[in-house]
Specification:
heterodimer; A: ten-stranded mixed beta sheet; seven-stranded mixed beta sheet; globular; B: 445 residues; alpha+beta; 2 domains; nine-stranded mixed beta sheet; six-stranded antiparallel beta sheet; 10 helices; 36% strand
Amino acid sequence: MKRKDFLYLSGMGIGGALLSGMPVLPLPDVLLDPALKKQLADIALNAARSKGASYADVRIGRYRNQFIVTREDKVLNTVDTESYGVGIRVIAGGSWGFAATDKMDTDGIAQAAALAVSIARENARLLKEPVQLAPQKGYGEVSWKTPIEKNGFEIPIREKAELLLAVNAAAMKGGASWVDSSLFLVNEQKYFASTDGSYIDQDIHRIWPTFTVTKTNDKTGKFETRDALSAPRGMGYEYLIPSAREKIGGVTTLYRDRYDMIEDARLAAEQAAAKHSAKSVEAGKYDLVLDPSNLWLTIHESCGHPTELDRVLGYEANFAGTSFLTLDKWESKKFNYGSPLVNIVADKTQMGSLGAVGYDDEGVKTKEWDLIRNGILVNYQAIRDQAGIIGLNESQGCCYSQSWRDVQFQRMPNVSLRPGKTPLTPEEMISKVEKGIYIVGDSSYSIDQQRYNFQFSGQLFYEIRNGKIAGMLKDVAYQANTQEFWNSCSAICDQRDYRLGGSFFDGKGQPEQVSAVSHGSATARFNGINVINTARKI
Amino acid sequence: MPLFTQDEAKALLSKVLNFSKADECQVSISGGDGGNIRYARNSVSTSGATSSTQLAIASSFGKKQGITTINEYDDASLEKAVRRAEALAQLAPENPEYMPVLGPQTYAPAAKTYSPATAAISTRQRASLVEQSLATARDTGVTAAGFLQNYAGFSALMNSKGMFAYGTGTDVEFSITMRTNDGSGSGYAAGGFNDIGDLDVVAASKAAAWKAAHSAGARALEPGKYTVVLEPAAGIVLLENLYGALDARSADEGRSFLSLPGGKTRLGEKLVDEQVNIYSDPWNEQLPTYNYNGEGLPQQKVSWIEKGVVKNLMYSRYWAQKKGVPPMPFPDGFIVTGGSASLDELIKGTEKGILVTRLWYIRAVDPQTLLYTGLTRDGTFYIENGEIRYPVKNFRFNESPIIMLNNLEAMGRPVRTVSGEGGPAALIPPMKIRDFTFTSLSDAI
């Protein structure tokens, strides 16, 4: 997750503080005519071919973001960003080349295509082996849309701002000292065409409502926070229409496919205050009961990233890192990543998820496949120029670029823990734990560059003693080794408890790009995990 | 040549302002040309070039504002964009924290942020530099993964009260990870400069290859408190989280490590060891930055921490007005002063300790104490009697830069350092710290 970008966008504005505190009117929401996009795409493909490219693809993109940022009773930022341009990727001399431009006329596009070819040729002399693409049939002219019920961009800005102010009011009424809330909307209108004969028009939507409630204590000078328990989703504004059926009761209300932001803010204010008097955790071994709002991030970091084939092969060695899940472990067919209960699945198709698209950014139709089956590593995440390395005759459809101006590369699909097959609720799970901690919400997260050693925290911690919740804890973080952690998984709740979490800003690559990805799970239990106390004095 | 010269930018922004009917209007344009090349497994992987600009128009009526952005510059498109910004301003809620646009400002002469040689870097030049790095990998028998990118940009800002600011900048950044072919050792080096002439790709590649070769066969030490020597590439990722948090408003609101009981703050108090001085200076020759910020406020030389005492905090224009103090913009670059010793001399002066060459995946654990966690990476070594004795396995740490800078033993000569975590460049000295807290071991190499 690239938190810094989030803070930059929400706090500083784009292009400097000029945008700070100022709402933005979007350009007219007119989708470009696919016929025009096909015409522009063909200019690029023809120019690339005429310069000698053996393969070319073109992505014409109109990328829209809207974010509304508020605090207490004030709307601080309402910003729309919009970016329109074309990225052209080619193979020439066996090497990749890429160029992007926002000069959307015949000359601008043809020049970019020629530049991409010249870059490929220049780099070809540094190449050890030519790029080998897995075969991909052309789909002709096809399209796909995120199945949203309400387009968030079409909801009046005032209505969205009023929701956030109501959220803030609920938190302040509940005793919060401060509250910051924001709403992010993303719309990717992207058109892909390639020399394979595909012309793919897609309209992708994502949404993320979130807040942080702070409770200060003037006497001690301390402060405690509680972040929203929402998830970023591949949905429209319907995610923000509360539904009793989508709520799960317990120590706090948890949410499936509809989020009650006002209710969550009210509860957050109570819980931030309660943290001040919560017991500081005693370091040691505990059985952890992890809610999906916490576990998604552990799945993301300790399973999602190490099964990325580009990391395994060393393409990310200089930045994001490599992976402990080396090819020999996969080839052995017996590497026990986790206990037999652990089944981890990859997909780009799950409804309402951040990763769902019809086709990836190199024109491959998306699908679902197993990564870990009954605890054993069985597969990776691959794109066209990697598929052959693991014996696949087609890509798994994991290629993505954050915009028209960045080159596409392998990115994580949704990676999720399958729910347990035996009926089990979180309450039943907790009732069997003697000494444990129930953790809700995500917070601090860190993992090494090969994905062995991690440390995670959370938003809410509850001590479990002899099968019962015994009160709130604070200063909790859990540290573990990935393989030991997943082998300690002793129970997973059933489908009824399955929920999605996710990251809006997962960072990887050089230049760094962000992508959005979901991770589903039901509440799961992990035995004997090392918990540290994070309290310090300065 | 930047994409827009000062005269071209001024002419375009003036034209946009002439369309304005709002109480206030502020317009800005920025953009540039960039190129990059990436390699791994001793072979080039992806590379590319991008050229783009963006114009933003902010119109306000009273405390109601609207913004629109556009990247088409014909008169009709510009006028339409201005009308849209004004229409939205009329619909927007009032922002009680709105600050009127600034009047004309006086800026000290711009620092040398733009290098024609960097702006002229070609596809061929990038490929040739990478070729030299790959040759180093081949000659030393290790596997290279690296990245080189260059950018030449401009930025201009103008408003209806007559303020105008313009700047240009170039940047070239290189990072390299060398790994032994069996994956048992890894080393890293990076450099980032305004001028390509300051970048030595071969020296960085050799340094990374040395660390890779010498970090193979690492031994496990028990986690605990150790004296560490932090190379600048390791220190920067903790220090950037300290100076990035020097914000007055959050301190005043009781939600910062700078907050004290009774609504007081640590401004003016001694926070860290008295050897610590942190300041910003747009005209520093090694770290030149813009002479104005995104709102058009002049940037100045500012002391943030002096002899361990918090001297200044960032004040937004709104918070400064509320508190009756001058606004203090966030600077573009930070400088931590040090001593004159080299890294080698710091190592020589260490009886027992651990040399940390890089820290990675730094995340906040507790904002009340500025506690951070992360791991060592790409070369960690045990020091005994002033010498590097053997490589050690990587550690996870849980440490606060405040506690760390209170345990400061010595600092060396500051050097321009690239943040491996995405922060801005800074001048950072190597530092020797006692009682640095490692909490667990990692098997990662």
